[in-house]
């Protein structure tokens, strides 16, 4: 059953939605089960497009030992198609099914096109500036387009470029690198906490920018992401001009989250001192739990960076446009991100890379259904209090 709230609905294309977005989480952390169940409640569920074959035994069997990029890419498109269709089936026409595609991924255009063909309601692009998204999706005018950006400068660049093509984003996700999980929209590790990323600064600056560009403020909803974990924050952010909130970590650990239960426990049990930022091989800062693998890697990082040099992709997948390990970029991470994220999805606590935001979780260590999470954030219904009655 769809949930309700007293907050104004989020309007995307012609849909009225709960003002909650479940952020896309790769590899495989947000697939059809999570996205479908969030959408079923009337909110926005997002599938992460990258390397979804990992959820399909038949496709994995064909490619696990293969170094044939063409084959791996082809089965990943099959997996993406299956995941979108399965999510839409769970959603039953409620909410919205979005697909997250990272600009930094080599198969970005193919993932965008497949998502549109398979019936995604929205495409959300982060980890780079999606200047060409309007052209890529020109044949699918009903698909909502949402760039993920972190500061007013990035928003201005996208708006000006897209306006030249007579297109506006259907909403903008503003992700604060100080708190968010995964890849962060800051130039380097030293700028992650820069005050110009604060929600208040970006929301105010964006509304001013809209005025300068002659865009009515209600035309492009602003969705804020990073560190949101209680209804008071949600209320405050709506008061500052946000139209919806996006959460990642809290959805990753929900009952319906598509990862192994060990994955969820690594995230829920992490203490503030266990959460670190470091350079990813994608050349962006990233935030994750300092597990055994990450700790060992960070101990060796300087040495590995000193030896960086171009080489073949270690798994033949060439998943990134630019990879610090393959391309020998010394200032970037020196590990295979797809391999480490694949371990995490399967619950391999020793070898996995576990992305996580910096802030506490709404329900502490508890793994609860997405319905309770959304009801808590929007309607202040606290499941622990309900259970104790
Ligand atoms: C495990 C995990 C994987 C993520 N992967 C992606 C991704 O592939 N693409 C993306 O744009 N954002 C990714 N994110 C970021 C989320 O979509 C979301 O914007 C962010 O986590 C919000 O911050 P929060 O975790 O503090 O709520 C990921 C987050 C997590 C926790």
Describe this structure in words.
There is one protein chain. This protein is α/β, with parallel strands linked by helices. It has two domains: 10-260 and 363-384, Alpha-Beta Barrel (TIM Barrel); 267-345, no CATH class. Helix content is 38%, strand content 14%. It contains 15 helices and 13 strands. It has helices at 32-40, 57-63, 69-91, 108-117, 133-136, 152-163, 199-213, 231-239, 249-252, 261-269, 292-306, 324-327, 337-345, 370-379, 383-388, and strands at residues 10-12, 15-17, 20-22, 44-48, 96-102, 122-126, 144-149, 172-175, 182-183, 222-225, 244-247, 275-279, 285-289. It has an eight-stranded parallel beta sheet with strand order 3-11-10-8-7-6-5-4. A three-stranded antiparallel beta sheet has the order 9-13-12, with no helix packed on it. The longest helix is centred in the N-terminal third of the chain and has 23 residues, at 69-91. The model has no long low-confidence stretch (mean pLDDT 96). Flavin mononucleotide binds next to strand 5, strand 11 and helix 9.
Task: Give a brief description.
This protein has helices at residues 32-40, 57-63, 69-91, 108-117, 133-136, 152-163, 199-213, 231-239, 249-252, 261-269, 292-306, 324-327, 337-345, 370-379, 383-388, and strands spanning 10-12, 15-17, 20-22, 44-48, 96-102, 122-126, 144-149, 172-175, 182-183, 222-225, 244-247, 275-279, 285-289. With 389 residues, it is of the alpha/beta class. Helix 2 (57-63) runs antiparallel to helix 3 (69-91) and helix 3 packs parallel to helix 4 (108-117).
Question: What is the overall number of helices?
Answer: 15
Radius of gyration: 20 Å
Question: Which sheet architecture does the biggest sheet show?
Answer: 8 strands, parallel
- Kindly estimate the percentage of residues that lie in beta strands according to DSSP: 5-15%
Q: For this structure, what is the CATH homologous superfamily of the largest domain?
A: Aldolase class I
- Ends distance: 23 Å
Enzyme class: oxidoreductase
Protein name: NAD(P)H-dependent flavin oxidoreductase
Pfam families: NMO (PF03060)
GO molecular function: oxidoreductase activity
